[in-house]
From TrEMBL:
Name of encoding gene: ccoP
Residues that span the membrane, as ranges: 12-30, 62-84
Pfam name, any one: FixP_N
Domain Cytochrome c positions: 130-211, 218-298
Protein name as annotated: Cbb3-type cytochrome c oxidase subunit
Quaternary state and interactors: Component of the cbb3-type cytochrome c oxidase.
Assigned keywords, A-Z: Cell inner membrane, Cell membrane, Electron transport, Heme, Hydrogen ion transport, Ion transport, Iron, Membrane, Metal-binding, Oxidoreductase, Repeat, Respiratory chain, Transmembrane, Transmembrane helix, Transport
Alphabetical list of InterPro entries matching this protein: CcoP_N, CcoP_N_sf, Cyt_c-like_dom, Cyt_c-like_dom_sf, Cyt_c_oxidase_cbb3_su3, Cytochrome_c_Oxidase_Subunit
Residues reported to bind heme c 2: M187, C230, C233, H234
KW Cell membrane (keyword) present: yes
């Protein structure tokens, strides 16, 4: 990947861009200097379709002037704005700076609104219809892509409308931290610690038995002896641990799929889930409102 960030590509892209513009100017100049010996009827001798002849007339002046203006504009644009490789241009314009300025103006317009919400307790804020309307817009813009427009999640993305929280108690403080700083959930592949393929299958049936799901009781009994490899994170009783983010295996909530094959895949391959931190996109007042909205999703009553 470093090959694509070296100075070679800066020179390559900038060089080709500049050469292309100068080549256009050169060919325009060359075409004005080149003279073709015309025939007696002022044609070039090229004939198409039997009687369509190419006349030896110069380019229209308006076309030549327009071409010159285009070349001059391209050179001027390249001098002012970033066009030649990584050269910034005389105006030092960047798309990021423009975005930041536009974002700052937009935030300044809504600052009075968020100031009203900032001093409110998240649970009280959840009762404010205006705040929840703002929170819904924030959710749809920044959260719905993963958790769904109804917040019920999908395979690999938690349901935010239930009371099942992997890394905490579902309090506003926990939700705020998760939104601002993100979360990372890792389950390492455990097959080597469990044993052979039959041991993994037996353990999968034991895991199914913990939640009362359909399972093979004989295999589950054999798999119980292998539970020790999982108890360090999921607990001796399989109810999980908030400290490690390990899910409760005794309920009917299956984040990564339900059934024997899904559990076997989890044991063999593990998981590596990441929720990106949103504090680079959202301001603290926005996170405060969004926290209340997400908290309300699982505390509607």
């Amino acid at each position: 990947m470093s090959d694509f960030t070296s100075d070679f590509w800066h020179v390559y892209v900038g060089g080709i861009t500049l050469i292309s513009i100068l080549a256009c100017a050169f060919f325009l100049w060359a075409s004005g200097k080149t003279r073709v010996m015309p025939a007696a009827d002022n044609t070039t001798g090229h004939v198409w379709d039997g009687d369509l002849r190419e006349m030896n007339n110069p380019l229209p002046r308006w076309w030549v002037y327009l071409f010159i203006i285009t070349v001059v504009f391209a050179l001027a644009y390249g001098a002012l704005y970033p066009m030649f490789g990584k050269m910034g241009g005389a105006l030092n314009w960047t798309s990021h700076d423009q975005w930041a300025a536009e974002r700052a103006r937009a935030l300044a317009k809504v600052e009075p609104l968020y100031a009203k919400f900032q001093g409110m307790d998240p649970k009280d804020l959840a009762k404010d219809a205006q705040a929840m309307a703002v929170g819904e817009r924030l959710y749809m813009n920044y959260c719905a892509q993963c958790h769904g427009s109804d917040a019920r999640g999908s395979k690999g993305f938690p349901n935010l409308t239930d009371a099942d929280w992997l890394g905490g108690d579902g309090s506003p403080a926990y939700i705020h931290q998760s939104i601002a700083q993100g979360r990372m959930g890792v389950m390492p592949p455990m097959a080597a610690a469990v044993g052979n393929a039959e041991d993994v299958r037996n353990l999968a049936h034991y895991v199914l038995s913990l939640s009362g799901s359909p399972h093979d009781s004989v295999r589950a009994a054999q798999g119980a002896a292998k539970w020790g490899a999982c108890a360090a994170c999921h607990g001796a009783d399989g109810k999980g641990m908030h400290a490690t983010g390990a899910p409760n295996l005794t309920d009917q909530v299956w984040l990564h799929g339900w059934g024997e094959e899904a559990i076997i895949r989890a044991i063999n391959q593990g998981f590596n889930n990441v929720m990106p931190a949103q504090n680079a996109l959202l301001t603290e007042p926005q996170i405060h409102v969004l926290t209340s909205y997400v908290w309300k999703l699982s505390n509607a009553n």
